[in-house]
Amino acid sequence: MEKFTQHTGVGVPLRRSNVDTDQIIPAVYLKRVTRTGFEDALFAAWRGDPDFVLNRDAYTAGSVLVAGPDFGTGSSREHAVWALKDYGFRAVLSSRFADIFRGNSGKQGLLAAQLAQDDIELLWKILETEPGTEVTVDLDARQVRCRDVVVPFQVDDYTRWRLMEGLDDIGLTMQHEAEISEFEQTRAAWRPTTLPAKHLPPVEVVAARPVHADDALS
Amino acid sequence: MGRTLAEKVWDAHVVRRGTDGAPDLLYIDLHLIHEVTSPQAFEGLRLAGRPVRRPDLTIATEDHNTPTLDIDLPIADRTSRTQIETLRNNVKEFGVRIHSLGDADQGIVHQVGPQLGLTQPGLTVVCGDSHTSTHGAFGALAFGIGTSEVEHVLATQTLPLAPFKTMAITVDGTLPKGTTSKDIILAVIAKIGTGGGQGYVLEYRGEAIRALSMEARMTICNMSIEAGARAGMIAPDRTTFDYLQGRPHAPEGADWDAAVEYWSTLHTDEDAVFDAEVVLEAADLEPFVTWGTNPGQGLPLSGNVPVPAEIPDENARIAAERALEYMGLTPGMPLREIAVDTVFIGSCTNGRIEDLRSVAKLFKDRTKHPDVRVLVVPSSARVRLQAEAEGLDRIFLDFGAEWRNAGCSMCLGMNPDQLKPGERAASTSNRNFEGRQGKGGRTHLVSPLVAAATAIRGTLSSVADLDGVEAPDGSPLEPATV
Predict the structure, then answer these.
(1) Which of B11, B28, B40, B322 to mutate to test the interface with A (most CBs of A within 10 A)?
(2) Does residue A213 register a pLDDT over 80?
(3) What's chain A look like in SS3?
(4) What is the mean pLDDT of the segment spanning B287-315?
(5) Which of A48, B125, B225, B301 shows a CA-CA span of 20 to 30 A to A201?
(6) CB of B118 within 8 Å of any CB in chain A?
(7) Is the Cβ of B283 closer than 8 Å to some Cβ of chain A?
(8) Which phi and psi (to 5°) does residue A112 adopt?
(9) CB-side exposure of A47: number of CA atoms within 13 Å?
(10) Interface predicted TM-score (ipTM)
(11) Is A116 an interface residue toward B (CB < 8 Å)?
């Protein structure tokens, strides 16, 4: 994972609350089996609207998203983080993130920085009044700077450390392999295992057939 | 000091305590896999040359992307087919059990675990799907994870996690007739908001929760994520044990006794302290519906669409205005006057056999409203087979509904089951986000009873709106009552 210490880029004011991951990337784009190439899918439904913030020239090259509260709610899809990263975002600022989204961001090197809502409002005013203004997100100092505004943000110590060092979680956990094996020895024997497989007798499942012409085409 | 249920399960799975702000390393007992959030994780393993550490604690099924018609034919959508084939190749390569389309044990991943008896009290259960919270109904600590975490669990059978806070949601009293566990959870989300549960594990308790069947409990825990909580839990009791006993992977003989003895310790101690508490009175609940574009934007069906101008908080007002514009609703109009095009009965929230029985009971000897399309999609192939054994399929078809094969279907519209732009659905699913059920589609989240009454009348309705029907009292429906 790429190290993250500080980033400066165009700030994008997204004045919406409850931006769920279905809005960040609709389900129809989740059929791909790759981890990249999701930039076109980002905010796909909203990007059809010429007035949507990312369709305005000053913000198109944005890399710091300044969003309303409860960003990233809903589905666990990590594709939401991939889409933001593929588009070019390095940081998302919000007064409250959904837990799974924040976790996914940390794994992928996208900084989810939590600011006070009042500070988000300050940034929105600057970015809306002067489109194209750059925002600096300083992870070392846990600080956002934009024009004369300097405000703090929160990120947990562990995520900050991992982002700044560019560390991979699996590698870190593998260092404790012996402890995992030891734990496995203590598990009760009656705990379920999926193998060998047990199930009710196999029965043939009859396929449902279309009753509408529309369905037959799809 | 005593511990909460969530803390007991957590403590029993700590492989290594985190120090200096590092998370705990938690052991995972059961890892459920599906086609959408796993391909990139398997690819990561392959690139790093890592095996799946515990294939015997891992199980895969196909659900999100699968068609609910013509399941014996090749999947028509090429990218969907590729994704399913990728899963099949991956599980073959890594030695993971799978239940594929056409298999009697295929179905929505959150139905497959419980019906096989793999979901048990006191386990840690994860899946790359946010509705993994469903399994908390058994007293398991179950939560959704992202694809990086899927890879992490495949490789190590553990997850680094910072401890959650705990919130008690107590529902006292008895549910009024015609209301269900779906109405409880919609009311909870409307009360605490879509972010109210963030950072918490919710524990549902109280008389009204104790009275619920296992399936009704699953509906509540399922939607914990809609309140922002990664997990919801209910302490196991006789209802839980009865559901589990005799299922394929449930313990047997002396193992069963040992398991029940342990499971019986899995409750919050009297002197345990929750970080937050919410209390609801079941008697105050009514059938609940959503009017907006997040699951917190819900009201009793007897109410009116909100008037944004009357909302004091600026952000909430803007959100309501945007939601009403998207939903095509007039501020102040009675919710009961909203006409729908589609009724969707299904999903990991409300696609189980009891849901289908409660719907069939209202559909019997009636026909659907002529302007409404009704889709009934069982949560698993076994649920479909069970419904057919009880003759429910005939009732659905005679009513004018479509009776489909199992899968996530129109809950998220990844397969061909989608709303068209501007179409409106009453849906027993879990999310009313913009475009969730199809681009431009409009969703009202409802209970199976409201969905059924709406399919009959064409507008959002409750059982009370039907002539000559006594509303069910919410107790589990046995086959004989249909």
Answers:
(1) B40
(2) no
(3) CCCCCEEEEEEEEECCCCCEHHHHCCHHHHHCCCCCCCHHHCCCCHHHCCCCHHHCHHHHCCCEEEECCCECECCCCCHHHHHHHHHCCCEEEECCECHHHHHHHHHHCCEEEECCHHHHHHHHHHHHHCCCCEEEEECCCCEEEECCEEEECECCHHHHHHHHHCCCHHHHHHCCHHHHHHHHHCCCCCCCCCCCCCCCCCCCCCCCCCCCHHHHHC
(4) 96
(5) B125
(6) yes
(7) no
(8) -100, 100
(9) 15
(10) 0.93
(11) no
The residue to which tokens 């409880």 are assigned: B184
Hey, are the CB atoms on B433 and A23 less than 8 Å from each other? yes
Q: How far is A214 from chain B (nearest CA, A)?
A: 10
Per DSSP bridges, beta strands B24-27 and B30-33 are unpaired
Residue type, B172: D
Torsions phi, psi of B70, nearest 5? 50, 45
Look-up: residue for tokens 């449930």?
B250
DSSP label at B285? -
Contact assignment for A31 to B65 by CB distance below 8 Å: yes
Tokens of B350: 């409300």
User: Which residues of chain A from 49 to 68 reach within 8 Å of chain B, CB to CB?
Assistant: 68
Residue pLDDT, tens place only, B96-128: 999 999 999 999 999 999 999 999 999 999 999
Alpha helices in B130-252 (DSSP H): 147-156, 181-192, 207-210, 214-222, 238-244
Specify the DSSP class assigned to residue B380: B
Q: Would an 8 Å CB–CB cutoff place A76 in contact with chain B?
A: yes
Alpha helices (H) along B166-286: 181-192, 207-210, 214-222, 238-244, 253-263
Residue A179 burial class via C-beta count within 10 angstroms: exposed 0-12, middle 13-18, buried 19 and up: middle
**Which tokens is B381 given?**
């192939």
Query: Which residues in chain A are closer than 8 Å to B246, comparing Cβ atoms?
Result: none
Contacts of A121 (CB under 8 A, 6+ apart): none
pLDDT digits (tens, 9 = 90+) for B56-78: 999 999 999 999 999 999 999 99
Pairwise CA distance, residues B300 & B306, whole Å: 12
Q: At what angle do helices B147-156 and B39-48 cross, to 10 degrees?
A: 50
pTM of the model as a whole = 0.96
Q: Which of A18, A22, A194 lies at the smallest CB-CB distance from B435?
A: A22
What is the distance, to the nearest Å, from the Cα of residue B23 to the centroid of all Cα atoms in its chain?
Answer: 28
Check pLDDT > 50 for residue B308.
yes
C-alpha distance from A18 to closest chain B C-alpha (Å):
8
Per DSSP, the three-state class of B227 is helix
Between A77, A79, A202, which is nearest B104 by CB? Answer: A202
Rounded to a whole number of angstroms, the distance from the CA of A69 to the nearest CA of chain B is 9
